[in-house]
Task: structure prediction
Amino acid sequence: MEDPMPWTAAAPNMQSIAWGLDAANAAEARSAAEIKAAVIIAVAIVVAGLLIAGAILVAA
Result:
């Protein structure tokens, strides 16, 4: 398929660049939120493990 407007190909499409930057920023924010959630889950697992270990020691 031939480009119907070949003269526009050389100029950068500002709209698509803006969308690309938005997508990059959104991905960065999302990954930061995922890391934060993973850390919170890991801490919760450790705390739960300590509580269980404490309960076992108390019961023994």
